[in-house]
């Protein structure tokens, strides 16, 4: 098992979990599964929750103070940030439109919903919802500003406050001379590497976590067909959204802002896209992405060396789109109807969370914990989608890399720093 790549390990864990769940349900090993198998799934989900706050804070602070190079490339960097945020917001919006149209989680019966939420305090969520209704129109903005950062860090539901403080902290580092912040920068560089290593260690447990989660899910649902129908609709919705980004959204903005032919763009970038698909890591693909943008697309080294690393840090279009669809899907399974304000919260949270998302396999799932917490949807719903997440992770990483290259091409074209692929 150790010699296999992680995605194959997770796929094997998924298949074994489904098989075990079906056998356990048919032969009456339900108590055994709940007592001896389910705890490992809970441990895995808790591990993801555990790392969410430090991952976002360390990655986001490092990403912000890395913009100190903007003193030399302020114009290029400013354009990059604007386009990255715009494409991320569009990705989340496309995801929300699709999931609200297909309603993949509506296939679950009320009985199955009750099975999932039986261990959750539904009444407390209703009480919170009633309190929100009585808040003023600007309460959402007020809630973003924490009164105590340590209290905010104690709950994943306060992640927007963590993001705000991380942004403020990073900006303050940029405004202070490097001589005075050299140790702080070194500290966060080290902390960021440590956190990424912890994520890597947690993801090694993923095959066993997936096995446990799916086995218990099958036992709870009685191996019903509606589970697989809902997962199929969910997966198709995510894939459709990702295809829209690659074959509709990116070609449109390339046509509007550049003279690059998208067919040539796609052909030149394809090696980086294939590597992104196989590794599920924007960071691992970054050297190839830079080489393809410079030698294949004709983007200047000045632009690629600044915009692409920035994009690997703050631009996660595929991940953001998936988070929007997954959050609404899980909410639908729980029988929760998200109003417009909650869906706008998804747009804001997924956009900001993407800034702090590590460019490594599995980070999107960690970021989803943040989005779910922001709209008060139980994180246990991750069990529903983990079995199909690895394949979708491979696809959304392709979108992440394609989005980075698209923005880099646009910026290079606007600065007249692109030499090939003209019409």
What does this entry look like structurally?
The protein is mainly α and 423 residues long. It has a single domain (6-414), classed as Proton glutamate symport protein. It is built from 18 helices and no strands. Helix 2 (30-65) packs across helix 10, helix 3 (74-102) packs across helix 16 and helix 12 (262-279) packs antiparallel against helix 18 (382-414). The radius of gyration is 22 Å and the shape is globular. The N and C termini lie far apart (49 Å). Residues 116-133 have low confidence and may be disordered.
How are the SSEs placed, and which strands pair?
Blueprint: H1 6-26, H2 30-65, H3 74-102, H4 110-117, H5 122-133, H6 139-144, H7 149-153, H8 159-175, H9 178-204, H10 206-221, H11 225-257, H12 262-279, H13 282-296, H14 301-314, H15 317-333, H16 340-355, H17 363-374, H18 382-414
Helix pairs in contact: 1-10, 1-18, 2-8, 2-9, 2-10, 2-17, 3-11, 3-14, 3-15, 3-16, 3-18, 10-18, 11-15, 11-18, 12-13, 12-18, 13-14, 13-18, 14-18, 15-16, 15-17, 15-18, 16-17, 17-18
Structural class: mainly alpha
Model regions low in confidence, pLDDT < 50 over at least 5 residues: 116-133
- Determine the fraction of residues in helical runs and give it as a percent range: over 70%
**Number of strand elements:** 0
Basic shape: globular
Could you tell me the radius of gyration in angstroms? 22 Å
What is the CATH class designation?
Mainly Alpha
Largest sheet: none
CATH fold-level assignment: Proton glutamate symport protein
Return the average pLDDT rounded to an integer: 77
Please give the CATH architecture: Orthogonal Bundle
Report the order of strands and helices.
HHHHHHHHHHHHHHHHHH
Distance between the amino and carboxyl termini? 49 Å
Tally of domains: 1
Q: Give me the number of helical elements.
A: 18
Strand content: under 5%
